[in-house]
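ok posting inputs for the adenosine-5'-triphosphate job
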Amino acid sequence: MSVLQVHNAVKNFGSLRAVDHVSFSLDQGDNLAIIGESGCGKTTLAKMMMGLVKIDKGLIKAESFSVQMVFQDPYSSLDPLWNVREILKEALWRNRSLSAGQAQEKMEQMLSAVGLSMGVLQRFPHEFSGGERQRIAIARALLCSPKILILDEATSALDTLVQKQIMDLLKKLKQEFNLTYIFISHNLRLVRNFSDKIAVMYQGKIVEEGQAKKVLQSPSHPYTRQLLQASFYINFK
Ligand SMILES: Nc1ncnc2c1ncn2[C@@H]1O[C@H](COP(=O)(O)OP(=O)(O)OP(=O)(O)O)[C@@H](O)[C@H]1O
Ligand SMILES: [Mg+2]
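and the output
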């Protein structure tokens, strides 16, 4: 079942075309990685899917409120003046029928799902480690009951051990909440272990798309080959 359709999406910033006639679709449960050099339009495309950036041309079809995003730096995406209870509560605003007790229960369940204890509810973002902040950002995103979670360099700022813990958590949550993932990353080894499909972006366009292992083992587009060489992926795989 298709949960997202992107058809010839275009975004211009003045004379710069950041996203250039991008098309793809996602089925429920898909795990798509989007890779490509800095500035090729990945975050802009993600924000268009979230509805945070207006699409200039084309069409993006997804159920309302079905897309949530986790960003690279959770410190800037979590309001520093709010404690975790307020941050998580805000994510439940659409569900106005919830009583205070039910809201509390949902927050508790979600904190447990991301591996945090109830004790964190009174604390503020600056009182957590990077990995813990990312867990809070994931909990907040999931409390919105999304079908699709976009992870935009969501583990890049973390050291490798914490990165692995968050990746394991994301794998577990995908099953538990029946999620579809869009995983944006520069780390091709992570992509290979995590995602089933890959879309390669270059100058706003998707230039290659396919099964992750196949694209990484035998890239067909010259830019993908260049990207793999530049990342030393070929030497270290
Ligand atoms: N709000 C904006 N106004 C003007 N230009 C923008 C805006 N947002 C992004 N851009 C430009 O659009 C292009 C694509 O940016 P985008 O953030 O989507 O790249 P990216 O692929 O996510 O890069 P990175 O891997 O570094 O995160 C860049 O040239 C960027 O400078
Ligand atoms: Mg980006």
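notes: The mean pLDDT is 93. The two ends are 33 Å apart (CA to CA).
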